[in-house]
Design a protein that fits this description.
Length: 242
């Protein structure tokens, strides 16, 4: 596949390493320019490009993997000429304290995190890879059938795009599970039981089923409180996201 990756940080780099090793052609972009991507390009065999070029040359798949707060800074017409059948993945998570500041629709729960990104980018997206650490994405994929293989939910309103991305998740070494619609993607967000816990399929399926599909106010408040505590813990450990 020809894959465009917008964002060359932890997740973008991990995906570039794995996807090129599987034989895919990867075009990768950051905000500072191609000259700053020489090392990554050498390490992975990916081609350094601009974000616009990644959107054009990723003719089979595009991945947007930049900090949530930077999504509104992407060019408004970035995906305007991308055919509808090309899946566009979003890996976003909302870190209000450490990085993104307060976004009203995410605080109220009116939108899910990738639902908010979807509004900005103006087309259906596929939410995946948000609930696994970059190093685990790069190193912990296993052949199908391996006991304890990590399962990753894939959520989207576009069923065909979801199926294509689920096949890629399997190719990368993870059990792909249907995470429902974008409105239901709150279940894989920070503060919930399947966020960065590297769970196998039976446990992810159990949590998806027991959480239900329609988020209650109590669930929203619980996830926010859990995530707030996690952010405070990260801050106390000196972890910086920007
Ligand atoms: N790190 C993880 O383990 C992990 C796991 C799951 C999900 N996520 C989520 O995935 C997203 C990306 O995380 P990350 O950890 O990979 O981020 P990161 O390491 O901070 O890297 C962000 C990348 O985005 C690029 N970027 C920022 N603004 C841009 C713009 N306007 N146009 C093009 N490129 C731009 C940056 O380029 P410059 O450096 O040139 O600005 C950088 O390459 C976040 O929402 C994060 O919460 C992260």
């Amino acid at each position: 596949m020809n894959i465009g990756i917008i964002g060359a940080g932890q997740i973008g780099s991990a995906l570039a390493v794995r996807l090129t090793s599987l034989g895919h052609t990867v075009y990768i972009a950051n905000s500072r320019g191609t000259e700053t991507l020489t090392d990554l390009a050498q390490k992975t065999g990916a081609t350094a490009v601009t974000a616009q070029e990644a959107a054009q040359r990723g003719t089979d798949l595009i991945v947007v993997t930049i900090p949530l707060e930077n999504i509104p800074k992407l060019p408004k017409d970035l995906l305007a000429n991308v055919p509808a059948e090309v899946p566009v993945i979003d890996t976003s998570n909302y870190y209000p304290m450490l990085r993104d500041g307060h976004i009203p629709e995410l605080e109220t729960g009116d939108l899910t995190e990738s639902g908010w990104v979807q509004q900005h980018l103006g087309r259906p997206l596929v939410k995946v890879f948000n609930n696994i650490f970059a190093a685990h994405l790069e190193n912990n994929g296993k052949p199908a059938g391996t006991p304890g293989r990590i399962a990753l939910p894939v959520a989207s309103d576009d069923a065909a795009a979801k199926q294509k991305v689920m096949a890629l998740v399997e190719e990368l070494g993870f059990d792909a599970l249907d995470g429902g619609t974008m409105r239901e993607s709150w279940r894989q967000q920070p503060g919930g039981p399947i966020y960065c816990n590297d769970l196998p399929a039976d446990q992810v399926e159990h949590h998806l089923a027991s959480l239900g599909t329609e988020r209650t106010e109590a669930q929203h408040a619980e996830f926010l409180a859990n995530h707030n505590a996690a952010e405070k813990h990260m801050e106390a450990q000196g972890i910086k996201l920007k």
